[in-house]
Amino acid sequence: MGVSPERLGLGLALGLALGGITLHAVSLLGFAVLGVVPGHKAYGYALALYGVLGVLGLVPLGLAAWGRERWGLLLSASLTGMLWGFCYGGLASGDNARLALGAMGLGGAVGLLGGAIVRQPWIRGSLWGATAVGAYGFAFLINAQTMALLSSGDWGRGIWGLGGVLLYGGLTLGALRLGVAGILTGARSSFWGATVAGTSWRGIGRSQLDRCFVAVADLGSDDDRG
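Structure (tokenized):
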């Protein structure tokens, strides 16, 4: 009864694994596009990365706030798969852009399918770890741009950038909170919150019922003494 240590441990481990792999991919891609300016051959990829991270960090949480958490997790799983596919597909192919884009599409499809199949709440809760990394990655990239703007005296756009950093910093914490809550919910046993209201006692002898109630009362008194 209560929280299952096995499910809790597995949920936290899976959340850390998903978040860790996503963080590694985002770090590699993020540092690769830092300093890329319009006209650079990688500028299109930089914009795509900003877009994917911006959507990953914002839209799933917005859907969850509107009571569409399931759709938010599907989107999060698909975008995470796209990031993994593009990053690791590019590494495996020797930075071949076409193969990286193909791996990105495949990764998005696999992520979407996996998110649709998964039903266990403690696994679904762990998916929010990837959303948190997406929000954090976007905040990191925006912060780098903001510092450059402020140092050059562009206070107007710099202040807007600071607002974006604060927004996505808050979204990072929100995704982490949802992830922990989902893992804890999934780790609860099936008896969590159960009552005996409406239970039929037909066929059970009076003496058996008395022994059951005495045993429950003894457990309660032991808890009070503890």
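The mean pLDDT is 81. The CA atoms of residues 132 and 172 lie 4 Å apart.
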